[in-house]
Amino acid sequence: MSGLRRIVALAPTVLLARRNVSRATARSTLAVVAVVIGVVAVGAIGIGGEAFKQNQVAAYEGFGGTATVHPVVYPEAEDPNRNFSEAEVARMRRAAAGATVIPVVQPFGSLVRTPAGETVVTAQVKGIADPGTFYGTANGSVPENWRRSVIVGSRIAADNDIEPGDQMTVIVEDELEGTFPVAAVLRPQGFADPLSADRSVFVPVSRFEDATYDEVIVRVDPSAGSVAGAATDIETEFNSRRRTVSVQQVQQQREQFEQSFETVNQFLIGVGAISLLVAGVTIANTLLMSVIEREGEIGVLRAVGYTRGAVVRMLVAEATILGVIGGVIGVPIALGIGAVINVFLVGDPLAFTRAGLQYVGVGFLVGIATALVAGVYPAWKAANKRPAEAFD
Hints:
The chain is about 55% helix and about 15% strand. It is α+β, with helices and mostly antiparallel strands.
């Protein structure tokens, strides 16, 4: 029998199955609702997860050519607070020729007060030579010969209503204390910024006497070189005998974030898929009850020549119809929920990613497959009952 004839031969079975599904409206509706919930759970979680991933990964944009360098301190070290000296920073500049090397002072025991005299508990004071080489400003500008003012991060400025020209008090224990005019407010940088500039107040590094540096930022223009190469050059220069510096690229942090997020997203989708398992149980229960109620009808079909295979196909078709209806209803609902999530996280309701749409497709196909599998046992049980038993 050709493939086309096989399909045509299935038509009466499908029509009979559709009629049977419509006869038990309440039970069929419950089974369809269970499939819809499963498809929506898998699809919406997948789309929402991808949207959240887009939102978070966007924070790494602009830092792809950046790496941070920290001193490695061993437990037996005489100085547990070892910092980088000017000579070591100079070695880094020679090793990573062509890269921008920015030493940073991050003093302990710092305090920041607003123009109104309120203490900004979350503010971090950092000493840097020229923040203009690393950040753009949203308001004001970094003076060319920056020595007597401070640069404020976007979050600190927004939370405390600070603008260029305001006076802020900065106190660093045993280092400096004074009131400085605000020269500029930086643009928002996001959580991926290695210096957490949004919550920082930058002061000129020249304000620190005999400064040593807690970390060093290395930046390479991607069009001119590779930050990976600069990181390798610095590690080769300092770690040839013993590991004395730790170099971490922002790109590596991004890859680690994406891997961790993918694991969490898969777990959540697995939890959502449990609802499809419940849908399968519901469909199996629906068909078992239907088989019990229709024992006489099935016995007549067997008596007039319906084979076991034909009965199995009819009941499996009923289960599949329930799965298809649930999937067809669930897909647009999942897309609608995904569009709402996209608006909140990425600002565009149609910002569906390929991976997010694949999750919707997976939910649709798994919903149908679950319904089909759930129909096998009731179908097998009905097909193996002899006609004489069905009439008892």
